[in-house]
Structure formats: C-alpha cells, structure tokens
Amino acid sequence: MYSCLASVSIEYGVLEKVSGIVVIPTDIGWSNLGDWTAIHRLSPQDERGNAVRGQAVLQDSENNFIYSHSRPIACIGLRDLVVVETVGRALVSARERVQEVKSIGEYFPLQRAVYPDVSQPVHRPWGTYTILEEGPGYKVKRLEIQPGASISLQFHHYRNEHWIVVQGTACVTRDAEETVLKTNESTYVPQGMLHRLANSGPELLEVIEVQTGAHLGEDEVVRVSPSCEPVACRSAR
Fold first, then answer.
1. Tell me, what CATH number does 201's domain have?
2. Residue range(s) defining the domain that contains residue 69
3. For 124-154, what is each residue's pLDDT tens digit?
C-alpha cells in the first residue's frame, strides 16, 4: 500500500532514478501554493479583500485570510493577517511573515507534554489513532485500522493496554495466543506481553484503547516487526 512507502520528494524518489523522461512546456496557470498567502491570493475574496475558509465572522477587517477547521472564528478590526485554526493548533501571523511558520513548527514537537495532540488524528501506515483524553497514568485512544493492515508486533516495558472493538473484526496476538474479537468484545494486554492488533475483516476496524502505566509515550514502544507486514488471522470462532 502507498502509505508504507518512504516519505520523499518525487524528484529524489522517482525522477532522479529513471531515464527517458520527456518534458513538454505548457502554460496552465500553475501555482505551487507555497504558503497561506498564495492560497489567499487564489481564493474568492469579499469586497474588502478577505478570504474565508470555514466558519468565520469578520467585522471592520480587510485583506485577511481566515481558515477555520473545527470552530467559528470572530475577527474584529484585523488588517493583513493570516489566521488558521486546526484541531489542537492555531496560527495568527502577519501576512508578510507567514513563511516563518517553519521555525514555529519546529518548536511544537518539543512541547508535546505541554500541548498534547488531543483530538488530532495521527496517521500511520496501518490507519490513524486519535488521543481522546489523557491524564496522569492513563491515556484513551481511538484506533482506526484499514482492512488487511496491522500495527507492528510490539511490547511495552511500562504500560498496560485494554482494547475494546467498536466496529469491525480484530485479529489479536498476545504472545503465542491468537484471538478473533468482534464488536463489543475486548481484551487486556499487560506490560511486557508481545502483542499485535490486525484488521482481519473487509471493513474499517475501530478500537478504543485505554492505556495505564508509569510511562505512556510513543518512545516506549518496542517494535519487533514492522506494521506493514501482512497478517493472516488463523483463529475463528
């Protein structure tokens, strides 16, 4: 599947390694949309030069780009700003300095303990996980695993995991044991146990994972085999 491929540019991953490429010049009005001001320029604007994506109310404001992902934004007296709201993050920048977002982006990963990615889906080769809630000694996630995919075979030194199947059919490996779980069924994985969760059905597998323990970071995962390895569930009941 494409999600298992390395994340590299097409120039490095493909164009530099093939021969016989033909380039045809053309004029198609192309823009690489390198920053939010480029998106502003190509977006429909009101009579005062404001471009809005999502829900926003503007009062006495002009030449702004407003992007709202999950909640309404109210703007009063703004001039020449970029305001971008996504789940768990917000950006407010002068239009002429919006490219400096790269330096700010390097800061956020260092502050995950202060700014947790709650409700922000995290993409993995097998699907996504979303942190629903977390606190001292516990974390609740929603896992969405694509058909035929699986998480890596792994274990943890410091945490326990409880899995509850909300939708789909799960093939669960716990050390040498293999079990099929369906909707409303659950299992428990204590710390130190080798385990894997795979989607053995034709539909999306949705699982609620409750973690408990002394350390719950992703750096605590010890992977034994990769997540893109095909898994066939032999158990049935």
1. 2.60.120.10
2. 36-106
3. 999 999 988 888 899 999 999 999 999 999 9
